[in-house]
Design goal:
Blueprint lengths: L8 E6 L6 H14 L4 E7 L4 H8 L8 E5 L4 H7 L2 H13 L5 E5 L16 E7 L12 H5 L2 E5 L4 H4 L3 H11 L5 E3 L8 H13 L3
Parallel strand pairs: 1-4, 1-5, 2-3, 2-4, 5-6, 6-7
Bound molecules: guanosine-5'-triphosphate (GTP) and magnesium ion.
Length: about 210
């Protein structure tokens, strides 16, 4: 795990369209900020700045600390193949806010093959959701297998979509061979503290 001595740690959040990546960021911001962390967010969308504008409007963070990259193509091209635009957006944040400790990158919603380049981030998580189906972990997509932390979101929806949450989590842990899996409900905030603690432990060494 790389920690930049003088610059901000960079983490990625990827996952399928609508799994709750932005919702997770909105939940994480107050928890991480309360722990004294100096942070910024860079969102990626296809041809808009929707997610950045949503976070700027949220009142959770200084809008100047939210950057946007328009991928213009499949989201993974700018988080994996050529992350230059995202690296530059992060560098701009660091120049604007000396003392910045953490930059959170949200990938545009993508498919199960989506992964982050380690040229861009030090650590990344992949967010899937219960409503996407309990067979998603079994499909062993690279995003699910390779991420540093797998987040299974929308646990509140399990009873409505016929998903056995415990089994889904067990299968996720099995295919990941011991790498961490956490469950969240971004509606209520359940599970968010554990995700924040994992970020702390992984890239900030503060826990
Ligand atoms: N019931 C429930 N809904 C959720 C939860 N998390 C997010 N949502 C809803 O799911 C929808 C998609 O959430 P987003 O946070 O926009 O998802 P995203 O992954 O950022 O979406 P893209 O960036 O478009 O790929 C929204 O309507 C959220 O309110 C959750 O834990 N439970
Ligand atoms: Mg989003």
């Amino acid at each position: 795990m790389m920690v930049r001595a003088k610059s901000a740690a960079r983490i990625g959040i990827g996952g399928p369209v609508g799994s709750g990546k932005t919702a997770l960021i909105e939940r994480l911001i107050p928890v991480l900020t309360a722990s004294g962390l100096d942070l910024a967010v860079v969102t990626n969308d296809l041809v808009t700045r929707e997610d950045a504008e949503r976070i700027r409007r949220s009142g959770l963070i200084d809008p100047a600390r939210v950057g946007a990259v328009e991928a213009g193509a499949c989201p993974h091209t700018v988080i994996r193949e050529d992350p230059t635009m995202n690296i530059v957006a992060g560098d701009e944040m660091e120049a604007r806010f000396p003392g910045l400790q953490l930059i959170i990158y949200e990938s545009g919603g993508d498919n199960l093959a989506s992964t982050f380049s380690l040229d861009l981030v030090d650590w990344w998580m992949f967010v899937i959701d219960v409503a996407g189906g309990d067979d998603i972990p079994r499909k062993r997509g690279p995003g699910v297998l390779r991420c540093d932390l797998l987040v299974v979101n929308k646990t509140d929806l399990a009873p409505f979509v016929g998903v056995d949450l415990d089994r889904m989590l067990d299968e996720a842990r099995n295919v990941r061979a011991g790498k961490p899996v956490l469950a969240t409900n971004c509606r209520t905030g359940a599970g968010i503290d554990a995700v924040a603690a994992a970020i702390d432990a992984a890239v900030l060494f503060r826990t």
